[in-house]
Write a structure and sequence with these properties.
The complex is a heterodimer of chains A (about 450) and B (about 650). Chain A has about 450 residues and is an alpha+beta fold. Chain A has helices spanning about 10-20, 50-60, 70-75, 95-110, 125-135, 135-145, 150-160, 170-185, 215-220, 275, 280-295, 325-335, 340-345, 350-360, 390, 430-440; strands at about 40-45, 65, 80-85, 110-115, 165-170, 195-200, 210-215, 230-235, 240-250, 250-260, 265-270, 300-305, 310-320, 370-375, 395-400, 420-425. In chain A, helix 3 links the parallel strand 2 and strand 3. In chain B, helix 3 crosses helix 6 and helix 13 (about 210-225) crosses helix 15. The chains are: A alpha+beta (about 450), B alpha+beta (about 650). Chain A: InterPro entries: ATP-dep_AA_Ligase, ATP-grasp.
């Protein structure tokens, strides 16, 4: 066999060849066309939300609600255009895409041209439907960016946002290895108090599935085989805040900052001056986020950590209406309807004029509004009591506490669970509001 | 100085109302809390209530009650009002607004479909009668401290408003009806009756119907004792007074007390004083003091020395109701049943278990100078005298109450054995299919924290019996048929028939062959079809309890006592219901009566077919079956219709 006088498998050769292959290729995230094609007159709201339905009806836009069969009688009684659909419990995202075919066919018949997700679990459904409406499967994948926490963080990382170190894990052994490696990097493997890491469920809303791991024993005691697969992440130290960003044509139309006065319990809008001070930093980070995630339309609800060194770290981002009555707080102080703004921003067909009329440009907040979520604390409860000094406080706005219809309550042991009612506050002094929002955590509103 | 109402509060309310009025029907719930909150602020002053009352039509039409329990006023139940008023939060505010709406309807200022002025009025009357304690708040330190400030003030203000708008006369009628319904059943525990009578007494100063005034006076007299000599006399004073009376005067006193006691089943403290005195000084007057029947007199005469002992040990002021029990016990002639006297005597000197002693002594106020044995004897007297007056109180223990009642009627010796075992040994045992079951070895029953407003015998026995019953249920599970088939005969004893039939198919949980069930019951229980066999012992049956709208609330245990024709010649089922409720409405016009249809005090009754429509399981004698086929199809169909349209809505029906 003749031998060539050239070494084809030498390092230099391969390396140079590989570099040539890079030339002229489009690298980085695939940019998608987010425009809504000219088909179908209606918008479909995926998920049941009365304030959203009210908003779209007020705007007199053609719409239909897609939600569970259980809501059908109510919808029929009140003439709400409705299509019943059982979303079921798909085991993986691909199953959603496959199953969305039937729903898509139905919605096309109903003259739907665009869908908007209302809840965390409907984000991928809406993504799948919009993908079919636009004939572009990438639209579906794009929606998963807001659902799969590992994919989300990786994308943020690639996009240049600061994120903690993270890994996807399949079992306790992998959590242990991650815990050790992180602390090794921090030179804390021999420390009495290693840094904690966080374990999170891959795709649950809020704090559900979240565990803080302080030691290897914690891995055994706080996690079970059912916890997996999950995500582990190094600890980010600092203030946790959330934003509600209304985006249209890739531009921020309105950005609200929410202060978590007491995580899981109370929020305040706008935040105290100390936090508001970081607005420019936050805006900068949000713009990076919009770029990194290729967001053109919609409302995002990202969470950031602001460290002691005034650096902003990305926590996570959701593509849905935030919990904790944050929209109600925005409505209270900024005097526009965020439920409507959410729908307008989600629809590429919305005109600039329409948006500008609806969403204030430079909004001046009327005081501070706070919400306090009330959870039952006793195993059996039969009535409601409101602390009299709270009810008579000038900053007390209203509460929504009814006598519970069930008397025994089961602690679900996962996330903060559903709150049974809310206390709303409104006043000019953010410190006073913060105080009221923290004072009653241990108070028994339900007894 | 008259305080002018803050008009800004009304304006704020109207503004919220307008927002709600202008929104879509489906979005009302989003605005309800705003409107309610604004209403709550108005409720803080008197004029605020009138202002809300005037806006009642508007706020209801705006949707304040939409999709809430208050939406349909015709479906509201007066006895639930108090709970909602005390529930706090928006529940209380909604309830108050609902009452104001009712006033507007009752007064004719708000014409509303689905409910008439009269219906609204009678609803409010009943509400007021049931909440008379709010109408006349007690000015005690306790009430003041326990009061919940703002909410309590609002509630009292509402009832003052109701009193202004409606006549108290109609309330007294309601109240008298409630009391007479309870009294008719002659319960052993009368705390609730006494409380209501005390409230009713306050109405006497107001303008009310003469007949109500008279009725209330009778109840008050029965409790306070208004004989010639006892009027305005406390027990110590009365005791001294009667010492100087001649026998004739004593006799008049005795007759007077006996009369009110027999009329109401309520005992006055001074009656006890008198009977204890008579017992020592004039035992020949005992029959008068108790107004005994001939049978009672004979029983007394036969056992006079024992009865005297019994009075000394078991008839005391803090447990005065046992005096009525004694009278009824003698009338029943129970003492002539051979195991009863030795059984009672055993309790006199029983060495009580420390736990038993504690429970018994806790049931009275202390410092009364009465021993735990005396308390237990008083309890036994009541149970033997008023077998149908035994109640389950606030406990879910209908099965055990039913047992105590059955044994008191038919096996007093057995009952006394159980009481002695429980009180002395802290244990009750029973043999089930060859194996001994001891209550002391068992942990869980239906009730883990017994509500202690119970008669002394129930206080001692129920915890043991309840655990045994639950253990029997546990051991009989997964046998492919309803557990009661085995549990009831084992628990109650051989008085329960071995044949058993249930509407629910145990394997599928559905209703299978309902017509067959109905026919079998008619064929074994209805005199027209069962060849005339009489019911000899009470039959422990299971029933579906339904509310006034026929909706299923749950299962309940009662005993069929007897089956007989009522004064109108209609066949009725007379049954013992351990929950001693005065008036029950089971929906579809099915309302058990407690008096007026020949009921023995303590019995409830229903027309035969109505009772069957709520029946869930029963026992029968396999050797005494009549002609089930002969039951007319129309009857079976009528029962089936009642069943299907009430509790049956929550069950699957299978045709065989």
């Amino acid at each position: 066999m003749p031998r060539l006088n050239q070494e084809t498998n030498s390092f230099k050769f391969t390396n140079q060849n590989d570099r040539k292959r890079l030339n002229g290729r489009q690298m980085g995230p695939l940019r998608i066309n987010h425009e809504r094609p000219e088909r179908g007159s209606k918008v479909a709201l995926i998920g049941w939300s009365v304030p959203s339905i009210e908003a779209i009806q007020q705007m007199e836009k053609p719409y239909i609600v897609v939600s569970h069969e259980d809501f059908r009688p109510y919808a029929e009684q009140h003439n709400i255009p409705f299509f019943a659909w059982d979303f079921g419990k798909p085991r993986h995202y691909q199953e959603v895409y496959e199953r969305s075919g039937d729903l898509f066919a139905e919605l096309v018949d109903l003259d739907v041209g665009h869908t908007i997700p209302i809840f965390e679990e409907t984000v991928e459904w809406s993504g799948a439907l919009n993908a079919r409406l636009r004939n572009d499967p990438n639209v579906f994948d794009h929606s998963i960016l807001f659902r799969d926490k590992a994919m989300m963080k990786r994308r943020a990382h690639i996009g240049g946002l600061k994120v903690g170190v993270f890994e996807e894990v399949e079992n306790k052994e992998e959590v242990k290895r991650f815990f050790r490696r992180v602390n090794q990097s921090l030179l804390k493997n021999h420390s009495q108090e290693p840094d904690p890491i966080h374990f999170k469920a891959l795709n649950k809303a809020g704090a559900a599935g979240h565990r803080m791991i302080f030691s290897e024993e914690d891995i055994e005691s706080k996690l079970t085989d059912e916890s997996f697969p999950g995500l582990v992440e190094s600890h980010l130290h600092g203030m946790e805040i959330s934003c509600e960003v209304f985006i249209h044509k890739g531009e921020i139309k309105f950005l609200n900052i929410t202060e978590y006065v007491l995580l899981g319990y109370s929020s305040m809008v706008p935040p105290s001056a100390a936090l508001e001070h970081y607005r420019p930093l936050i805006v900068e980070e949000v713009e990076k986020l919009i770029q990194a995630f290729d967001i053109q339309y919609g409302m995002i609800h990202p969470e950031f950590f602001i460290t002691d060194q005034e650096e902003v770290y990305f926590g996570e981002v959701a593509y849905r209406i935030p919990g904790g009555h944050i929209f109600e707080l925005i409505q209270k102080v900024y005097k526009f309807n965020p439920f409507g703004a959410h729908l307008l921003c989600c629809d590429p067909h919305t005109s600039q004029e329409e948006l500008e009329k609806y969403v204030p440009k430079e909004a001046e907040a009327d005081g501070h509004a706070g919400s306090f979520l009330v959870y039952p604390r006793k195993k059996t409860v039969s009535r409601v009591q409101i602390p009299p000094e709270m009810e008579s406080h000038p900053s007390f706005d209203k509460h929504t506490l009814y006598k519970p219809t069930i008397t025994k309550f089961q602690d679900i042991n996962e996330g903060y669970g559903n709150h049974w009612g809310t206390v709303f506050l409104h006043g000019n002094d953010s410190e006073e509001i913060s105080q009221l929002l923290t004072d009653y955590v241990d108070y028994d509103f339900y007894i | 100085m008259a305080v002018k109402m803050d008009t800004s509060k009304i304006e704020a309310f109207k503004q919220e109302l307008e927002t709600m009025e202008s929104t879509y029907s489906f979005a009302k719930s989003m605005y309800q809390s705003n409107v309610l909150q604004a209403a709550a602020k108005l409720m803080d002053d008197e004029e605020g209530l009138s202002a809300l009352y005037q806006l009642a039509e508007r706020y209801e039409q705006a949707g304040i009650f939409q999709d809430s329990p208050w939406e349909d006023p015709s479906k509201l139940q007066p006895f639930l009002v108090k709970g909602s008023l005390q529930a706090g939060g928006l529940t209380t505010i909604s309830e108050m607004l609902s009452e104001l709406r009712m006033v507007a309807i009752a007064k004719g200022v708000y014409k509303r479909e689905g409910i008439s002025e009269g219906q609204a009025k009678s609803f409010l009357h009943e509400v007021m009668a049931l909440n008379i304690d709010i109408l006349f708040p007690e000015e005690t330190e306790a009430a003041r401290i326990e009061g919940k400030g703002k909410e309590k003030d609002r509630m009292e203000r509402l009832f003052q408003f109701l009193e202004e708008k409606l006549s108290l006369a109609s309330i007294s009628g309601e109240l008298v009806k409630e009391i007479s319904g309870l009294i008719a059943q002659r319960p052993i525990m009368v705390n609730r009756i006494v409380k209501m009578v005390n409230h009713a007494e306050k109405l006497m100063e107001k303008e009310i119907e003469e007949s109500d005034r008279k009725a209330i006076q009778t109840y008050v007299d029965a409790i306070r004792g208004r004989t010639k000599k006892s009027r305005n006399c406390d027990t110590k004073k009365y005791r001294n007074k009667i010492k100087n009376l001649k026998e004739d005067a004593i006799k008049t006193e005795a007759q007077s007390f006996a009369k009110t006691m027999r009329e109401t089943g309520l005992v006055a403290s001074n009656h006890v004083v008198l009977v204890r005195y008579i017992n020592k000084q004039h035992p020949q007057l005992l029959a008068e003091a108790l107004d005994l029947t001939n049978k009672g007199k004979a029983n007394l005469e036969e056992h006079i020395s024992f009865v005297q002992q019994l009075i000394k040990a078991g008839i005391h002021i803090p447990l005065k109701q046992s005096l009525y029990g004694l009278a009824k016990m003698l009338d029943r002639g129970v003492l002539s049943s051979s195991p009863v006297i030795p059984g009672l005597r055993r309790i006199f000197e029983l060495d009580l278990h420390s736990e038993t002693r504690k429970v018994l002594l806790n049931s009275i106020n202390g410092n009364e100078g009465i021993t735990a044995n005396s308390i237990l004897i008083a309890g036994v007297i009541s149970v033997l005298g008023q077998p149908l007056g035994i109640g389950q109180g606030m406990n879910p223990t209908c099965q055990t109450a039913r047992g105590i009642s059955l044994w008191s009627l038919h096996a007093p010796g057995h009952l006394l054995d159980l009481i002695a075992r429980a009180a002395r040994d802290g244990d009750v045992d029973l043999t089930f299919e060859g194996q001994a079951i001891h209550s002391k070895d068992l942990r869980e029953g239906l009730v883990d924290d017994l509500h202690d407003e119970l008669d002394p015998v129930s206080l001692i026995l129920v915890p043991h019996l309840d655990r045994i019953y639950s253990e029997l249920v546990r051991r009989s599970k997964f046998r492919g048929d309803d557990v009661h088939k085995w549990v009831n005969p084992a628990f109650y004893g051989d008085w329960v028939q071995k044949g058993f039939c249930s509407v629910i198919d145990p394997m599928t949980g559905s209703v299978a062959d309902y017509p067959g069930f109905v026919r079998l019951f008619y064929g074994t229980h209805h005199p027209d079809y069962n060849e005339g066999y009489e019911l000899i012992y009470p039959n422990p049956v299971g029933i579906f309890i339904t509310n006034a709208f026929g909706k299923l609330l749950g299962l309940h245990a009662v005993s069929i006592q007897r089956i007989a024709k009522d004064p109108e010649g209609k066949m009725r089922i007379y049954f013992y219901n351990p929950n001693n409720d005065s008036s029950q409405d089971w929906g579809q016009g099915i309302e058990p009566s407690v008096e007026g249809c020949n009921e023995i005090p303590g019995e409830s009754s229903l027309p035969f077919h109505q009772f069957v429509s709520r029946l869930y399981a029963f026992h029968y004698n396999q050797y005494e079956q009549g002609d089930a086929y002969a039951v007319e199809d129309e009857i079976v169909q009528e029962v089936e219709k009642l069943a299907k349209e009430s509790w049956g809505e929550q069950h699957t029906w299978v045709q065989l």
